[in-house]
Amino acid sequence: MDRVYTTNKQYEVEFNNFAEQNGLERRVPSHGVTLDNGGEYDEYPYMDTFEYYDPSTGRLSATNLGGDYLHLQDTDGGTTNTGQWSDIHGERIPDDEARYIDHIEDWVYDYETVNAWDNSQYLYKDSDDVTRITAGAYEGDYALVEDVIELYNGDIAVGGGIYQIDFGGREGEYALEDDVVRTFDGEVTLEDDAVYLTGGVHEGEYSNPDDAYILLTGDDEGSVIHYDDLGDYEGEEWTHYVKR
Questions:
Q1: Which residues have C-beta within 8 Å of that of residue 32, sequence separation ≥ 6?
Q2: CB-CB contact of 162 with 188 (8 Å)
């Protein structure tokens, strides 16, 4: 039973006696109560003590229930709370300041959000699953961790222009297009791990060091050629190229 308001002290005593005789808890309860006729209504009574109500559970409480509660202290039959409940912040955010974020399934303040690199969604930038892009075309933008690629040098990139390294000291890792070279047979690697061919059919192109040889005799002595071109230098001496 909520607090009693009467015009006569004797009436208050009668209310309290009735509560005691019927096992009713009086004044501010230590816990809420669940209504048999809960749910949502077009209008609500003004509530003094049990001022918080959760339509989904039918629960009334004297303290903030959290979640999607209604605050029943409007004298015109409405509710006084506005905005969206945020589990992260533990408070209700005004509608004009709130934004719902799909990847965390919660409401946060609009100023705490950023647009994803591909404009596909808004991100809560303080979330553990959001990171800032540090290299590439979208440097400075934000993305979900699951969508980015960590590069060989520790940078974070997303989108196109990212290549997996085929050989060398960083084989299997990733690099941006501007940081790699492509051999004539299509392999991708860092420039320092490739060999620049200075002779043969593929002069001016790059090769895997394992396939490169250096001529020791002849007119092209000192030139670096590809294994496939050795047949063009019959009678000459050569040795496997050792990259330093």
A1: 50, 52, 59, 60, 61, 62, 63, 65
A2: no
Sequence length of the chain is 244
Q: What is the pLDDT of residues 61-118, one digit of tens each?
A: 887 766 678 889 888 888 877 678 889 998 878 878 999 999 999 999 999 999 999 9
For 242, the token pair is 């050792």
In contact, 49 and 84? CB cutoff 8 Å:
no
Q: What is the DSSP string of 7-62?
A: SSHHHHHHHHHHHHHTT---SS-SS-EE-TT-S--S-----SSS-EEETTTTEEES
Residue 31 is which amino acid?
Answer: H
Residue 178, helix vs strand vs coil = helix
Least confident of 39-48, 58-67, 88-97, 192-201: 58-67
